[in-house]
Structure prediction request, 340 residues.
Amino acid sequence: MAKAIPGIIFTTIIALLATFISSLQIIKETVNFSPLIIAILLGVLIGNIWKIPEQLKPGVVFSLKKILRIAIVFLGFRLTFQNVIDVGLEGLIVDAVMLISTFIFGVWVSRKLFGLEPEMSYLIASGSSICGASAVLATAPVVRAEMHHAAMAVATVTIFGTTSMFIYPLVYKFAGGLIGFDEVLYGIWTGATVHEVAQVVAAGFAVSDTAGNTATISKLTRVMMLAPLLIVLSFYLARKKSTHGAGIALRDIPIPYFVFGFIAMVGVNSLHFIPDNIVHYIRIVDGFLLTVAMAAMGLETNINKMKGVGMKPIYSAFLIFIFLFFVGIASIKIVHQILG
Prediction:
């Protein structure tokens, strides 16, 4: 652990710098990037123009693996089981339909249409179908992805999530009546299809408080589905590796045990026995820990390997974005008609 301290301090400094940059007014008014995105950009920049000293590497790896898992566990404090109830059956079904269909479509497009590696395909699909960069970070250890794959996947969900943040309110303003959405349905659509939580909040409240609240709850419900998806994916990958009908040993299953901690924290948060002000600070610290992990990911990313991948991940993510947009509208209209 002592060997890791210099590297942890290094990634922490990058995370602090990223947090400061994201708070600048000019950043908020232009690109509006979260500290997570800025941290990975800074990490990639530093890691590719400066040879990281060997004494820093243990701490960078610790930040990327251990701190990341801790952060994902405490991500559970952003959710409650009451969120699922609040979004209602209609929102829950739409969330589930969009998550499953988008993940399957995303993997298929990435693998079959563009020939991307399986690990990259899973990362792009999980980032697009669940919660952007956080989902990519959580999925990476499960599929044993290389860091340049994860960095590219984060880049794709950032590009199209940011695009969604601006396009969705415009679509509702100019074509809301055409697609038959009121503010609640718009909120469900936004929460079920836009990539990052922050992007959902921005796109939702750009329309109204009702749309914003509905979108946020819908999105948080979708985030909660990260846990079962990773567990199912773990068993699927283990089964895929087994040959000739042989049984699957428990050690062959890359079970993401941190996911169970995530579920436990959702349960704790649902009981509301921890004061709100303390939960607020837990969320702040957790967001910073995710930023530290992102900085480490950037430092571990070889930009030459990213160049080698080319534009195919971007093309794949674009088709997934189109899928989310139009299939999301169709799913809501069908579910609303059935349940309404």
In short: The mean pLDDT is 85. The longest helix spans residues 81-113.
